[in-house]
Write a structure and sequence with these properties.
Elements: E1 15-18, E2 22-28, E3 31-36, E4 41-42, E5 45-46, H1 54-68, E6 77-79, H2 82-88, H3 96-99, E7 103-107, E8 110-111, E9 114-121, H4 124-133, E10 135-136, E11 139-140, E12 150-156, E13 159-160, H5 172-179, H6 181-203, E14 207-218, E15 224-227, E16 236-240, H7 256-267, H8 282-300
Antiparallel strand pairs: 1-2, 2-3, 3-7, 4-5, 6-7, 8-14, 9-12, 9-13, 9-14, 10-11, 14-15, 14-16
Helix pairs in contact: 1-8, 5-6, 7-8
Bound molecules: adenosine-5'-diphosphate and magnesium ion.
Magnesium ion (MG) is lined by residues 19, 21, 228.
Amino acid sequence: MSSAPLTDSALPLPLVRRGKVREVYEVDDDTLLLVASDRVSAFDVVMAEPIPHKGTVLTQMSAYWFRQLAAVAPSHFISADTEEIIARLPALAEHRQVIAGRAMLARRTAPIPFECVVRGYLAGSAWKEYRQAGTLAGEPLPQGLTESVKLDPPVFSPATKAETGHDENITFDQVRDALGAELADQLRDRSTALYTTAAEQSIRRGIIIADTKFEFGHTTSGNLLVIDELLTPDSSRFWPADQYQSGRSQPSFDKQPLRDHLDELRQSGEWNGNPPPPALPEAVVQAMSTRYRDAYLRITGDTLLASP
Ligand SMILES: Nc1ncnc2c1ncn2[C@@H]1O[C@H](COP(=O)(O)OP(=O)(O)O)[C@@H](O)[C@H]1O
Ligand SMILES: [Mg+2]
């Protein structure tokens, strides 16, 4: 299911949305085709170079989790099987190389404009909030917690889904005020159940899911589905369990090589953090590609490609 690195797809279907990573196409009133490109963003800037196999990793890892977690919460997932998708959409046959492994057929929803973040460990913006205010999502946490410490039970810490600019962490009460208590509670309960089940499963493979972000939407008939991508390196913090130690930041299976490289450029004044992005060295591109494929192997226990 390998294809050439892809920066942008252009399929003969109506384009609904072009996100930072995915093109979303309309199949019919109730169905979408999500195509994960190999674009990578860091600090909200999309890089010029595609990361080989990244889109395939995102789509196939999401498909893996949608299947694994089907009993926990209903989802938008229909199929990520290229031949099944082409059977349904014969016009895509001549675009087989473009969509191979990276396309997902999904039930169309009206997305709920909040990111449903669940945190099982104190890291990233949560660690920052705790250090500054002693709280997480506005709720007080015990004093004296250290960076990367396990949060038991996990904490639902929602964020706005900003159309432009950075997502902003908010409180659960703000979600309740916006959506009503019933829907807000459903989002929290489903997100927490998805996280807990996935985290229990991953730890057996030696991976800690420190935190992750879910999105939900309603179908026209009013069903609440988990949508978008599920438990990928782009939406989650994965840590190798054998290197875990609280009291410090953790090595992770994500964009760290890219972030480190960009940090250096910013410190030396070679890049100001705004578009256009700097050209990436081939070594950084390859390090990222390896990380994404390694994450897929570690999480699913399966190799993505017959040959690398
Ligand atoms: N089932 C669905 N119904 C409607 N919209 C969806 C569905 N699944 C995903 N989406 C939307 O498709 C887009 C996916 O593209 P992506 O590149 O991840 O965008 P973003 O830059 O917003 O993260 C997101 O805006 C997401 O909310
Ligand atoms: Mg997204």
